[in-house]
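User: I'll paste a sequence; please echo it back and then give the predicted structure.

Assistant: Echoing your sequence first, then the prediction.
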Amino acid sequence: MTGKATKGSLKKWMGLALTMVMGVSLLAGCSSASNQESEGSASGNGERVTLKVEVFDRGNSPSPYTITNNYMTKWIQEQFGDPNNIDVQFVPVQRSEETTKLNVLMASASDVPDIVFVYDSSVFYRYAQQGGLTDVGELINEHAPNLKEYLGEDLLKFGQLEGQQFAIPGKRAITARYNSYIRQDWLDKVGMKAPTTTDELYETLKAFKEKDPGNLGSKNIPMGMALAPAQYETLIYSFIKPIQDGLTYSQRYELPLHEGFKDAMQFLNKLYNEGLISKDFSLDEEKAQLVKDFQNGNIGYMSEDVGQILYADGMLDNLYKNVPGSKVAAIDAYTNANVDNKHIKSRYGSNGMYIMIPKSSKRAVEAVKYLDWMASGNNLLDIYSGVEGENYNMVDGIPVVNDDATQEMKDRIYNSGDMAIIANGKVIGDQTVNEGAWIAGFPKNNQDLMRQSIDIANTDTIGPIIFDKPIEAESKYGTVLNDKLKVLIVKTAMAKPAEFEAVYEKEMNDFMSLGGTELKKELEEALQ
């Protein structure tokens, strides 16, 4: 199974490489149409028009909803679409295939949505440099006063290239990113305290394997692992040395360029070969198996996006239903020898996703008006929180989730975070207020653990260096290197210990030859 996973990753990488090579001509094909004049604009001659908006599909739509037909899509149509004579059509993109699918859509002037988005800055810069995006600066000035006030000039700069506003950055509510959890009941059974260092964590994982406190036999997984950032980045950051005090290169594919990355891979190799992590993690990029194993009580320790396990009827609630007597605690175990043994972990930048309007779109005016509507009045609050008095109640200016809400009421907002694209998280005020609002959105039984999770996620963080110009090598090689990073992680983790050095050297040489050398050179020059 592991062999297939590696071949699959390589095959996917080759496909992305081909997409990158073709990128210039593909985007050029969609850049010819002008969108500065929104033909048939709903605000112009009264003709009803269609506005196509990308939406992430996570495969979690509750019956009878679909990702394109649910309470929120209908509500947006009623509140924004109908009053403006616009049919709002949502175009699903699988979350795990975000960049790959977006490349395909951007290559088609007819199929690409009028509003698209991406988290990867290199992808945004590539589209902008290749002429595939609309300059929305004047459109914002003319049609989006609420959006402009909501974001502010400093945040809008994240979407600019050479003075032109090619993207509208989302606003991040909080910068806390990752957290780790451990089965407290397992610790009690093996007679150990929660680990506070990497060495202690390793000893704890060995005890979980040898003593099998869950009586799971072959199903016992001391440390849950998936081929996803929340799992491998937490481990890597506990080994790498920051480039500057409190700062690193941007996350993802730049990680191999940091001092200490090899040590991280060596530790992961050790965990894998000793049977301490999920055996088939390389097959689990979407974390579906990780979620199942955690909910079934098979995992002793894991890292995850902060709060991810704590949502109503989510991973933690399901664990407690499935395994009576189970108990989970938030811990801060990883320590970094390169930074005074602090609990180093990454944090988000202040901007969220990059929201873009393709150059080929004829609905740029409507697209900007849609984003402005979202930033107006209580619309963003309603998208995130649902109906006041049913889904939530306002307490001291914070929307507090109603635990007595029916399942039907809860299902209204199952994808609210993916619909509120101008905000990453509940943006109510400053970060402290936003954190309070975030905590209040969780079930009361999970709120204490959520508060602890945020405190840990905010401890000893390092953030990305923000350069005043795009890194050309990121735009050119970012997608390929991001996928190559996954191949590198899988192959070095699964190598036999005696073969680690040779495998690591080969994979790193490949990484550098695919653009890593140029990326490293340009990043170092930009630091000067």
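The radius of gyration is 23 Å. Confidence is low (pLDDT under 50) at residues 1-26, 28-40.
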